[in-house]
Every structure is written in C-alpha cells, then in structure tokens.
Amino acid sequence: MKGASKQSERIPLQEACQRLRMSREQVMPRLQRGDLDGGKDQLSGHWYVTLESIERYLIAESTAADPASA
User: Fold this and answer.
1) What are the sequence ranges of the domains in the chain?
2) CATH code for the part of the protein at 7-64
3) Between helices 13-20 and 24-33, what is the axis angle to 10°?
4) Chain-wide mean pLDDT for the chain?
C-alpha cells in the first residue's frame, strides 16, 4: 500500500479489539453504529477497522473519562 495514509490504514478486527481493549462482541456494535469506521473486506471476507477511527475513539474515551483534560 505505497503512499497510503494513516487515515485509510485498515486494522484487522482482532488487532482492533486488542488496541481498544475490547472483545469482538463489544467492537462489532460500535462498528454497526458508526462509532468506529470499518467494514467487511469484499475479497477476503475479514472485518477491519480503520486506524484513524481507533485513535479517534480512544481520544474521545479518554476525554470522557477525565473531564479535567477537556
């Protein structure tokens, strides 16, 4: 993926779960609601989450957990 930006980088669902410290059962509803960006790869059939949305979600969660940092 030469020249691909971090925003479009796709992370396999399993890795996304690890980064988010959540189970698959916790991540899938967030994907379906649009809290996380991603989907199912048409060729492989594997689920993915974008790195940008993982980072955005983690920042939002940390801000919500610590209102003093807002």
Assistant:
1) 7-64
2) 1.10.1660.10
3) 100
4) 88
